[in-house]
Structures are given as C-alpha cells and as structure tokens.
Amino acid sequence: MELSDLGFDGRFDANIPPSIGEERSLARVTAVDRGSYLVRNERSEVPAELSGKLSYLTGNPAELPCVGDWVEVRYYDDGRAAIVHQVFPRRSFLRRKSAGDGVDFQMIAANVDTAFIIQSCHFDFNPRRLERYLVMAADGRVEPVVVLTKTDLISGEELQEKLGIVGSLTDADVLGISNVTGAGIEEFRRRLSPGRTCCLLGSSGVGKTTLVNLLLGREAFDTKCVSGTGEGIHTTTRRQLVLLAEGAMLIDTPGMRELGLMGAGEGVALGFEEIACRSAECRYADCRHENEPGCAVRSAVESGELDGDRYASYLKLRKELEYNELSYLEKRQKDKAFGRFVKAAKKRMNDR
Questions:
Q1: Which of 267, 265, 314, 263 is nearest to 290 (CA)?
Q2: What H or E segment, with its residue span, contains residue 302?
Q3: Using CA atoms, how far apart are residues 140 and 143, in angstroms rounded to an integer?
Q4: What is the pLDDT of residue 224?
Q5: I need a surface site. Which of 156, 266, 301, 312 has the fewest CB within 10 A?
Q6: Three-state DSSP string of 260-301
Q7: Contact status, residue 266 vs residue 138, Cβ threshold 8 Å
Q8: For residues 208 and 238, is the Cβ–Cβ distance under 8 A?
Q9: What is the CA angle 303-306-308, rounded to 5?
C-alpha cells in the first residue's frame, strides 16, 4: 500500500515538514474516541496519542486531530504505537456547532471528497434537516450526495415523491437504496473510487453502519435489530475510517441528534442558491430579505416564484448562524482574557 491509496496527493505536498523521513513519518487518522486515536500508514494501523506540546498549545478543540486528518507522527515500541506532533492543514472538512449549550466547533471529519447524506424513507425523512446537512457540506467544500435508505418500506410512488422533494432542494445527486433487498447498492458502489474519501452523515438508525458492513462483505461493526416502527437503533459510538475493496475510504459516524451550524455563512449561500441569485436584484446590497423596501427575494416569495418554506428555513438558519457566531466570538474573547489573567498571576507569584 502507498500513501496515495490512503488519499495523500499533491495537494498536501507543500505542507510536508523537513522532519518527515528522519525521525517522523506521515500517517492518517482513522479513528478518534474520547481523546484516543488510531493512525494508519502504508504498513499498519496503530494506537496514537498527542504530544505534550501539541496538546498544550492547541487552544481550540477543532484544531486537534479528527478522523481523516493527515498528521506528522513519531513511532515507538517497534512501530506498535505513535505520538502525533502536528496536524496538516485541511483541504476540506465537515463540522458542526458542538452539541448542547456549548459554542465551539466540533469536527466530524477532514479531507473528505464526498459526503453521503443518509435519510430513511420512513420516519426519518426530513427536508429541513437535509438542508442543514447540505449547508454543512457546502461550508466545508465537500461534494454532497443524498441517499434515501429503506426504500423497501415505502411504495414506488412514495419514493418518487420523496426524490422529487429532495430534487427541489438541491442539484446534488440523489440515490434510493435498500440494505434489505439490495436495490441501488451497485449504483452506490459506483460512487466509490480508489483513493477517494467518503463520509456517511445522518441520524441514528438510518442504516449507515449496516451499509458499511454490506460494502465490506462482513459484519465488521455492530448493529442492532430494528425497532417496532421499522427504524434502526443507534449503535455507532465513534467516527472511524475503513478501507473498502474498491479502494475508496469510508468514514462512518455516530447519528447526530443535533445539527447546529456555526461559521457556515458561505455554506448557507451555496445551500440556498436560488435565494442568493435573487438577492442580486435587491435594491440594497446589504439587504437582509426581511422588511427592507425593494427586496427581490421577498417579492419572489410573495409571487410564488420562490418557495415560502425554503425562504423561512433560510431566515431561520441565518439567524441561528449569527447568534452562534456572536456567542463563539464572546467565548473566545473571554478565554483569551482568562488566559492573560492566569499568565499575569503566575508572573506575580514568580516575582515574589
């Protein structure tokens, strides 16, 4: 195996430090679980930990290694373990606002080529949540592909209706598959090109891990029986990158109960392209498309040229982004002020 088989290409060459090839090596992060890591190189996959310097100097959790990152490591114990010294700049990423009341970024995966956004055709189908995933992908410069699972649980007419709804939200490719009957699986496989990194995104129980096992051809990861409603039950607890026979890499992720967005202003514009295009016709360049006179977006909604639900979702996401980003900025300012206070206190103690 070569590093290129793990997704390393010329786009990372400029970031290779001089220390590589002497005492340190390149590796890719394949799993993260509560501060412990797995990294893989051309020969093997081993457990890894952060160097003291990297851990101490990294003030933002989003800058710590995540699945898919390329890192500089030093191996020890005859190559059976490693220490991570540096994280390479990411060329693409998937991230969200941390769950709960926190106002930090949570990294989902890095250096991803394609995000398969998974929704069940059954109870999980939710166009508004799908919009959030599409914004997440656009924000991180990741190609989205929407995958509707459990097509065996609905009629052909219902499937076509749902495909039409998804098509009204995005120009991304849309697939319908069934892990039970195998429908659409071969078409899904054709999206898995050697050297490319794909990530599965979606709620708990939509069939992500079952799909991974199906692609691997074995029960590599635990799944649970479906519930009484026909929906799956959450099983995956960590993000993990696996190599497929096709040569592609696939990242499975735990189901997301919350999908808060932060720092994704460009992603919102790309995810609601019809609104962004119409906004160029507004009277004011800084129009917020709410109550301003001469708003082309609001006028198009009133005339029926733009979908009212899409417009309402756009406003909601934009306001959420603004609130979260303001909260994040305030937190960072408080963190910096507290850091200065600690340093000053230590200096006073040392001067005594």
A1: 314
A2: helix 296-303
A3: 9
A4: 53
A5: 156
A6: CCCCCHHHHHHHCHHHHHHHCCCCCCCCCCCCCCCCHHHHHH
A7: yes
A8: no
A9: 90
Residues of the chain with pLDDT under 50: 225, 227-234
Residue 164 is encoded by which pair of tokens?
């039409």
Residue 327: what pLDDT?
A: 76
Look at residue 29 in the predicted model and tell me its pLDDT.
96
Q: For the CA atoms of the chain, what is the radius of gyration? A: 23
The C-alpha atoms of residue 203 and residue 119 are separated, in whole angstroms, by 7
Contact, 349 vs 343, CB < 8 A?
no
**29 — phi, psi (to 5°)?**
-75, 125
Q: Which of 47, 46, 80, 84 is nearest to 64 (CA)?
A: 84
At 273 the pLDDT is: 87
Residue type, 266: E
d(CA 30, CA 43): 14
Q: Residue 73 is encoded by which pair of tokens? A: 């490591």
